[in-house]
Amino acid sequence: MSAPPQFVPTPPKSKTGLWIGLIIGGAAVCCIGPMLLLAGGGWFAFKTGKGSIECMVNFSVVQKALRHYVKDHNGKLPSAEKWQDELRPYVENSASRYEAKSGPFKMFDPNGDWGCVDGDNTTGMSFNRDFSGKNVKEIKDQMAAIVVFEIEKPAKNANQPYKPLDFEKSPKLFTMHRGWLAIPLTGKPLASDRNGSLKPMGTNMSDISKEPTKSKSDDDSDVKINL
């Protein structure tokens, strides 16, 4: 009589794979999830602030073009009635250099509307009629001389005397009004506060609505135009 087959119990299934899966899943929730949220928040911040950054660039480019124009025209500023036409070659030259290193930020088309597309707002640029054709030697305080400034709508060769616009109607940076931009003959581009005063662009937006300052830059690198 043969011996009955020996009973061999089935070994318990290993839970190692399960634990590894739980650990990886937990890591994904704890680590990868916040990273995705952070990336999404960074994209939202970039998309929201992109228009304001490009607007600042546009005004900076026009300021540089204006300074080159003055040097080529014996110290005279362009005429208010055709200032964009007269500055256009200088802006095009600056635009070609800027676009080579601009990355995701784009400048306005020198042959199109001069101004900014900032969120739902399309603003324009105006020349200060008070300085039409004026020689810079006659301007004593070049840092306070607002020659080009932002207006509510673009218009070809727009020109008018400078006066502060309603702060509450200015485009927003995130949830706060950023103020209206302006460029002096010499010095940093400026942004208005709710009191109509001007301060250098890039100042914290929460301060723009609180602290009025004079429209002068403290940057010693700003050089007066002497011709």
Written overview of the protein:
The chain contains three helices and nine strands; from the N terminus they run H-H-E-E-E-E-E-E-E-E-E-H. The strands form two sheets. Strands 1, 2, 3, 4, 7, 8 and 9 form a seven-stranded mixed β-sheet that branches. The longest helix is centred in the first third of the chain and has 57 residues. The protein is α+β, with helices and mostly antiparallel strands.
What's this model, at a glance?
With 227 residues, the chain is of the alpha+beta class.
Q: Tell me what portion of residues adopts beta-strand conformation.
A: 5-15%
Annotation, overall tally of beta strands? 9
The average pLDDT score comes to 76
State the low-pLDDT regions, or none: 35-47, 204-221
> Main beta sheet, described?
7 strands, mixed
Return Rg in Å. 29 Å
- Share of helix among residues? 25-40%
Terminal Cα separation, in Å?
123 Å
How many helices? The count is 3
Task: Report the structural category.
Answer: alpha+beta
List keywords for this structure.
227 residues, alpha+beta, two-stranded antiparallel ribbon, 9 strands, 34% helix, globular
SSE diagram, text form:
Layout: H1 16-72, H2 83-99, E1 115-118, E2 121-128, E3 146-151, E4 159-160, E5 172-173, E6 176-177, E7 181-184, E8 190-192, E9 198-200, H3 205-208
Helix pairs in contact: 1-2
